[in-house]
Write a structure and sequence with these properties.
The protein is an alpha+beta fold. 48% of the residues lie in helices and 21% in strands. The chain has a five-stranded antiparallel β-sheet with strand order 3-2-4-1-5, with helices on both faces. Helix 3 crosses helix 4 and helix 4 packs antiparallel against helix 7.
């Protein structure tokens, strides 16, 4: 059942960081032609110690209104702080995480985390619902992927990011 005002999460795993980055480029291109709306995307990698690193390309951060808060919040929900090798901090992450958490079941969280554990790299994309169709047509090259629609309003995510920005300013 489609929710007209939902949020879509896509997580794909890849055998290498280069392959994840190639699909990350596809998502940026889809945004530049107006196919995906507001989104946030990050490439995740794991180091030899098993720590997860969130790698954001700063130009993509400027393009998406959520500026790292959505993928950072999702990673913060999926992994304990001791496993996250990148600082995922800020009021926006906390506020956005609360909205994402309300839209996910415990089994969703488990499925997302286990999928990321399987690959060497992952692409995480959080965005407006129209992202789902655009990514399907783009035929991303992930070895495995999971895609979920959350019954969360993108407007709530926007508001959490704006609120955090005014608290920091």
């Amino acid at each position: 059942m489609s929710h007209p005002d939902g949020v879509f999460i896509y997580i794909g795993t890849y055998p290498s960081e280069a392959e994840a980055r190639a699909d990350y480029g596809v998502v940026k291109e889809l945004h530049s032609v107006g196919a995906v709306g507001t989104y946030d995307a990050s490439v995740l990698t794991k180091d030899d110690a098993g720590k997860v690193h969130v790698d954001k390309d700063e130009t993509a951060t400027r393009h998406g209104a959520w500026g790292g808060a959505a993928t950072g919040a999702l990673v913060g929900l999926l992994f304990p702080p001791a496993v996250i090798g990148t600082a995922v901090v800020g009021a926006a992450v906390g506020g956005v995480g609360g909205h994402l958490w309300k839209g996910m079941s415990r089994s969703d969280v488990k499925e997302f985390g286990e999928l990321i554990d399987e690959g060497q790299a992952a692409l995480v994309v959080v965005g407006e619902l129209k992202l789902a169709q655009a990514l399907e047509k783009a035929e991303l090259k992930a070895s495995k992927h999971v895609a979920k629609e959350l019954k969360v309003s993108p407007k709530d995510i926007d508001e959490a990011v704006r609120t955090a920005a005014t608290e920091v300013a």
